[in-house]
Predict the structure.
Amino acid sequence: MIKLYHYLFYRTFLSISRTNKTTPEKNAASYLSFIFLINIITLYFPFIKSFNIKVSYFILGIAVLVSFLNLNYFLKENKTKAIITEFKSGEYNPFWRYSFDFYPDISLLLMTKIISNDSTHLLGMAIFLLILRGVSYFSNL
């Protein structure tokens, strides 16, 4: 399980390092923590509407805490460098590569679908993500 978690970080790092040359390790860890925050909020959103405000703040606090712990896990001194060197030389199945690459996109689409039942919001988010993927792809040519 930890290996999958590290591979997710590595794929996020590769995606971010295409455009960000300054601190891609820190930004990949921050982005992954933000996606985990979105996932926790997405999972609990249907329940948040039915609970009172104190429970909603408690769930939000747990989401922020998990996100913060994730960020601290990756920002340890040599943790990111060790993960990058571990996966740098390996060849992996394209299905898994693309699955991990689209994990943030799927998380954002799922959050959009759960928060808003309107299909235009979902379509707008999908178009936005496609534009971001296109800009990222064509900036590397």
Remarks:
- The CA atoms of residues 17 and 23 lie 8 Å apart.
